[in-house]
Amino acid sequence: MSPRVVCVAAVALALGFAGATPGARQPAAPQDRQVFRAATDEVTVDVSVRSGSDRIGGLSAKDFVLTDNGVPQQIDSVDSSAVPVDVTVLVDTNREVDDEIDDIVGQATRVGRMVRPTDRLRVWNVSTVVSEVVPLGPAGSAPKVPPMIGGGLDAVYDGLAAALMEPVAPDGRHLIIAISNGVDTDSVLSLSTVRAIAERSNATLHVSQIDVTEEPPSELGAIWVTAREWMRGNSCHEGNCESGAAFWQPHYTPNGPNRFDPLADTARATNGKLHTLGLFIEHNAADVFANAFKDFQQNYILRYRPQGVTRLGWHAVDVRIPRYPDYTVHARRGYAIEDSATTGTAASSTVAAGPASPIDPILRGYERGDYDAVLAAAADIDPQAMVTSLRAAGDLWPAAPHREAVLSLELARVALLKGLERARKPVSEWLADESRFVRGPVLPDEFEHAWLLAELDLLEAPLDPGEAERVANAGLARFPGDPRLLLDLALAADQHWTFGSSAVLSKSQLAEQVSTVLGRYDAVIAHTEAPDLAAEARVRSAWMLHRAGNDADALRRLDDVRDADADVVVRYLHHLFRGHVLVGLGRPADAVVDYRAAVDLVPGGDAARVGLMNGLLAAGDRAGALALSNQIQTTVPAVVDPWHFYWEGNYRHFPAAIAALRAQVR
What we know:
seven-stranded mixed β-sheet
């Protein structure tokens, strides 16, 4: 079975699912954050009740008092172990624990065997990326956990976020067992963002912390380190000491106290726990799961239909047992409801920008889905100040990172198209940061690909080939050989040649540059599975050859273009350029045929009409040329000539691309 890539919505995704790390944040679920949606708006609340360390059973609906945003609610039913459970096992295989991989995989296998046949099981592998090695399915038929290879950095935070955001059936529950040392070296997401997701998740998270040990007590208190860290700190023997810089761990102060407390807080936010394995209890992850699953089955499941509260937005849930005040009650903290007609409400946002903030109308409008208002507000703000304010605001929607990534493209468009040179650098830096929200704990996915192409569509408009080339190369590292990215790379090289330093190049240097551009277009043409892109590459490479004075080769390329493979813009350019090439080859009568075809495709296209006029004149039809000249001067074209945005590359695709991305983050 080939592993399926799991992605974070993003972020956050996205989380998720991206940044400058080898992972990528993109959604494994159809939602960017945990949102409750049920036809009847019935809410399910998972509750555990303890007296000291003992679980309390035998309670009924009348024992509980539940409020939703402070309003008391009628509890419809109380269930317990009969509720089905989805179990997700995260197996950490980073290079700090690669000596223990076989044992870790064995623990995951034991966990799978303990899940009830009526429940469902999935297993994810967490290293530099997060991949699914056992897809979600009935536990009774779950395959054996396959062997895994240790090594690499560790995107454990991204993996936790991805699991926490997996959708849960309204009548089900989700238990996550993360087998990890808790040391993160490669995530896109911060632990604070993961905690924000955890607080609004329907899942319960338990972390079985492997490969950690307690340093001898000091004035700092208990200090927990990984085994490798302990060995590095204690590797001096008889005067010989080993280097302590073998592993990169940027997220931690090496000997700071309570370094794992934030991870423990994240687990507690879900009613789970961080388990440091001991000698007498919970020797391994299977023991952790056995205890957690036993407790999990003894939890109470309260169901109610919210009454007396606003439907949309974030709902804080509080559960108490007034008759037994000494009982400790742990319950889901809340849930969010979004309506299909809206993107969300102000309550769903974690942005701290106050009413006086210039970016507040932008954020509020985007949450409502009022894109016209967003663009209007952005147009009234200095581009550099707008970008600075948005970047300073931090994670705008921690649990819906992809929304922020799409917004960045929309506002970057406003900033770049104002034509202010000083806005280019901050916009480029902002988009580079936002790319981390679409690259995540996973291998590349469709959202990342779509966002990347939209970014390139945008960067090609202001004729900034250097930045477009950088982004295209970074994209090809994620999507090797992708024909659309190869076309973007060729467009950047073409723009370099046209708008760069070609005027001061020697003849040999110019020939070398033309050869480079041609080679990039040929790389696209080689992709026969993308005939539309190959057609565009042929048309553009032919125009480059014409500009370089090689009309014979240009015509051969144009003759290989099939109009059926191309969209109307490329078909128009095909015939327009063919007319120019034929004129250059001294065949004006043939050129007239192509010019007329271009005019038919885009009636009123200025470039085609002027070309046709020139062709008619060259072919000896002065009367026809004069009549067409008068028509050109006295009529206003009803459409924009595609030639006028030829050098904007694929920017013509940006409106459709951004609309598709908006639909994914609503």
